[in-house]
Design brief:
alpha/beta; 6 helices; globular; nine-stranded mixed sheet
């Protein structure tokens, strides 16, 4: 099959010449041999349903979809608003409706992951693949954490170094009242892989979504995250680390849609660009009417270690409510000459000093991975790139 998708659309279009309104993901003659990611560990309190029907699995989102549709009736849309393009998604995702259409056309079933109400699952559910050449993979997951429950899910994407394949992932989540989902995604694919990871979900009253991501491999990686903070005092915390070297290209789209009263969203994207790498980052805080008392903060910290890298960043704050606090901060630059001089004065040569600084930056994200073995694997992967 051929793939022609327009993904990671900015919620409101900006100047065309900036080339940040969205990206195209196109591949020809792709045969998907794998249509799921194996679950390698599952605790007793978690129910896994393989090959679930997508429509049935996503029924839990219908109520929130109807509430949002009713709330948005007659609301003023931002200039250049693109949300109308994705209105048919029962749960909005960062990459958009084209991914859903691809999944349907390829007849991809759902891996449904859920636990019971008021249940605290102490061990994380783990999904992992290690792909070889010709193992093109397309998968979708729905994670349901009902009222009062807590669950962690770790997803790890690996491949052989010379695998020249496409991997696409769709993950949708529902976090109920007073519930918590900890989602971890670690991408360490080979440098010939084309990869996309589409995420979206709903957080109900006093629910919490915690997301940790590391993007370290693939030739091209497209990542979209859309969090709908629907309930009162719901919150999300996003921490993403990335390292792009050679000719790698990363494209990020993060949207925090804040609908409930006193919602809180925090996002930190921290990464390094080396050699001829390039990266796009879109970060959007969307305060809808009724979100009074809400706070949103997004921080980007990018280290540029070559004159040839390309970094494009566009923060966006949309506001339909007066009593809100939206903040964006960006630190984009090179290693401090003063810090390099300080380290060289203590016997550390310039190249090793750079490696130490790079590792420190990414280790600040890696430390959040709740699995010791996976943290060690990430460290070894980083070493293989930096050495």
């Amino acid at each position: 099959m051929d793939i022609n998708m327009h993904v990671n659309e900015l919620p409101a279009r900006t100047y065309r010449w900036l080339k940040l309104n969205g990206e195209d993901f196109c591949e020809n003659n792709i045969e998907f041999r794998n249509k799921s990611i194996p679950v390698t560990f599952c605790a007793a309190d978690v129910k896994i349903t393989e090959n679930a029907d997508a429509k049935t699995s996503e029924e839990i989102f219908q109520k929130s979809y109807d509430l949002c549709a009713e709330s948005d009736k007659g609301a003023l849309r931002a200039n250049g608003d693109t949300s109308v393009n994705h209105d048919k998604q029962i749960v909005r995702t960062g990459m958009g409706i084209d991914v859903d259409n691809l999944l349907e056309s390829a007849d991809i079933k759902v891996t449904l992951i859920q636990t019971n109400e008021n249940t605290s699952v102490t061990s994380p559910v783990i999904l992992k693949n290690n792909l070889s050449d010709k193992e093109n993979t397309l998968s979708r997951q729905v994670i349901i954490v009902p009222d009062g429950a807590t669950m962690s899910v770790i997803m790890q994407y690996d491949s052989e170094d010379d695998a020249e394949i496409v991997e696409g992932v769709s993950t949708k989540f529902y976090v109920g009242k007073n519930a918590t989902l900890n989602l971890v995604k670690i991408q360490m694919l080979g440098k010939k892989v084309r990869f996309f990871d589409d995420i979206g979900g709903v957080v109900e009253e006093k629910g919490c979504f915690n997301f940790v991501s590391m993007q370290l491999g693939a030739a091209k990686a497209y990542n979209g995250l859309y969090v709908n903070l629907l309930g009162k005092e719901s919150q999300s915390n996003v921490n993403c680390g990335y390292l792009a070297s050679g000719n790698q290209f990363y494209d990020f789209n993060y949207v925090a849609l804040q609908r409930g009263v006193k919602t809180v969203s925090n996002a930190v994207y921290r990464g390094i660009l080396i050699d001829n790498a390039s990266k796009n980052w879109r970060g959007s805080l969307d305060f809808r009417k009724g979100s009074s008392g809400s706070v949103g903060d997004e921080q980007e910290d990018t280290l540029l270690l070559s004159e040839n890298v390309v970094n494009r960043t566009i923060p966006l704050i949309l506001c339909g409510e007066e009593d809100v606090d939206g903040r964006h901060g960006a630190t984009i630059g090179q290693l401090s000459d003063d810090m390099l001089f300080y380290m060289e004065a203590r016997g550390i040569d310039k190249e090793n000093a750079k490696k130490i600084m790079v590792r420190a930056r990414l280790d600040s994200i890696a430390r959040m991975i709740p699995d010791g073995e996976l943290r060690n694997n990430v460290g070894r992967f980083l070493d293989s790139i930096l050495n």
